[in-house]
Write a structure and sequence with these properties.
Blueprint lengths: L19 H21 L7 E8 L6 E4 L2 E4 L1 H19 L5 E10 L2 H13 L10 E5 L2 H13 L7 E5 L9 H10 L3 E7 L1 H7 L8 H5 L4 H10 L5 H16 L4 E7 L9 E7 L2 H13 L5 E2 L23 E2 L2 H24 L5 E2 H8 L7 H13 L3 E4 L17 E4 L8 H6 L1
Helix pairs in contact: 1-2, 1-10, 4-5, 11-13
This protein binds S-adenosylmethionine.
Length: 426
């Protein structure tokens, strides 16, 4: 897709060519749907899972890539669910009902006609109106109905919203807040063309509908325009926007990842995963690490990667963060270091122990950190006798390498000879 805009489908017409960055995005969607269902069906007590998958900007569903044909997001999601359903059925002798409803929305009638045609030719025709619902509309205009449909399916409201918009203003933050507030377990994967916004930003945009959609008022824009005068302004504005998104979408957990489209880096965009639960953040974080170099995180390694000090050059230490082994090692080292400082400062301030979940919740949103990385850091701090880790029942976690979310971490009164605190926290 040239410059991320303008995929077009018409029945009988030629297929659009899929950009490589979009192929990577499809991999993420597919992997996340699988991981989500696998996680929620893990418990043998679970007899049924009701899930609604909303593809709010679904497109026509088929592309060309490297001379062949590949599926778009709606068909990828259908296939991902079929795959994991078969996998779970094979593993669970007692059986489990995985009831997934799909809602495909697109504002362009031609695209919807194309998708309907494709679904029929792929043998899904009889499902339309049953577990596949197709809506020709702007997502914003049907979001209330979609929420009501999810609410009507039971109390858990398990739902994944893939909002793959062009640009950055077709999904208002008010709608995301509505999704987060009205549903118990919603997750949103939002495409946000951050460079598009940052590059365009000028004072003529103040008070336009686009900026109002993402709750950016006059003073926000003026502040960001002032930043444009500074060294490293782009990262500065991106960080400001990211903080703004965190404050205004009503989600507790975020995973910000950069996508660099091929052929130039000034059209970068974010794939933002917004959720209300740490385990959702964790699963998405794992997928990003699993896909290594496909995505980049845009901060430093470890915790607080986006936190900036106005007196520092924002570029200092800021590395684009490929998800490979080197990045992993950097992240693990950084977390040991930062955990040491953090726990030391807490102890000095007379604060009590904190759980792994609290630790993760207060720091994971800005960083490519996942539970496994925190676990590795805790093992190292325990080995150095800097921390004592106990289970919910008070039992010492002496030798385990994986910790539960409720395990408590406290600073040891008698650090060992090789204390990381002594070396790094002082
Ligand atoms: C980037 S394409 C989607 C591609 C699709 N998610 C995929 O990965 O295969 C964006 C689609 O959003 C549709 N669209 C644009 N504005 C929209 C809106 N406000 N609401 C719903 N769909 C919209 C376009 O017609 C286009 O088909």
């Amino acid at each position: 897709m040239a410059g991320n805009l303008g995929y077009d489908w018409i029945v009988g017409g030629s297929l659009p060519e899929l950009g490589r960055h979009s192929a990577a995005k499809h991999e993420i969607f597919d992997a996340y749907v699988g991981a989500y269902i696998r996680t929620l069906t893990k418990s043998h007590r679970t007899r049924a899972l009701n899930l609604t998958i909303v593809d709010g900007f679904c497109g026509g569903g088929r592309y060309t890539l490297d001379g062949g044909q590949v599926d778009g997001s709606p068909l990828r999601m259908l296939a991902a669910v079929d795959r994991v359903r078969a996998e779970v059925a094979a593993a669970r002798t007692l059986g489990i009902a995985i009831n997934v409803d799909f809602v495909f929305v697109d504002a362009n009638r031609n695209h919807i006609d194309f998708l309907r045609d494709l679904l029929e030719s792929e043998g899904h025709g009889s499902r339309i109106g049953r577990d596949i619902h197709i809506l020709t509309s702007k997502f914003e205009e049907v979001s209330g109905d979609v929420i009501a449909r999810i609410q009507a399916r039971g109390r858990a409201h398990r739902s994944l919203f893939f909002l793959d918009q062009y640009g950055w203003s077709s999904v208002t933050f008010a709608t995301i807040r509505k999704i987060m507030a009205a549903l118990q377990n919603p997750e949103v994967v939002l495409t946000f063309m951050v460079d598009h916004l940052v590059n365009l930003l000028n004072d003529r945009m103040i008070d336009t509908a686009g900026l109002a959609a993402v709750d950016l008022g006059r003073s926000d824009v003026q502040d960001m325009l002032q930043m444009k005068q500074m060294r490293g302004w782009k990262r500065f504005i991106q960080n400001t926007l990211y903080e703004h998104i965190q404050r205004n979408t009503g989600a507790d957990y975020y995973t910000p990842f950069f996508i660099h489209p091929e052929g130039g880096s000034n059209r970068d965009y974010w794939l933002l995963h917004l959720s209300k639960h740490h385990s959702a953040r964790e699963e998405m974080g794992k997928i990003h690490w699993g896909m290594e170099n496909t995505f980049e995180h845009f901060g430093r390694a470890g915790f607080n990667s986006l936190g900036f000090n106005p007196s520092e050059d924002v570029r200092k230490d800021m590395l684009d963060f490929g998800f490979n082994d080197n990045a992993r090692t950097r992240s693990e080292n950084a977390v040991v270091d930062q955990l040491a400082r953090m726990l030391h400062a807490r102890a000095a301030a007379g604060k009590g122990p904190l759980t792994k979940k609290e630790l993760f919740a207060s720091h994971c949103n800005e960083a490519p950190v996942i539970g496994e990385i925190v676990d590795a850091a805790l093992v190292e701090l325990r080995k150095a006798q800097d921390v004592i880790i106990t289970g919910k029942d008070g039992a010492l976690r002496r030798s385990v390498k994986t910790f539960a979310w409720d395990d408590e971490i406290k600073v040891s009164r008698e650090p060992g000879l090789f204390s990381v605190f002594d070396q790094r926290a002082a």
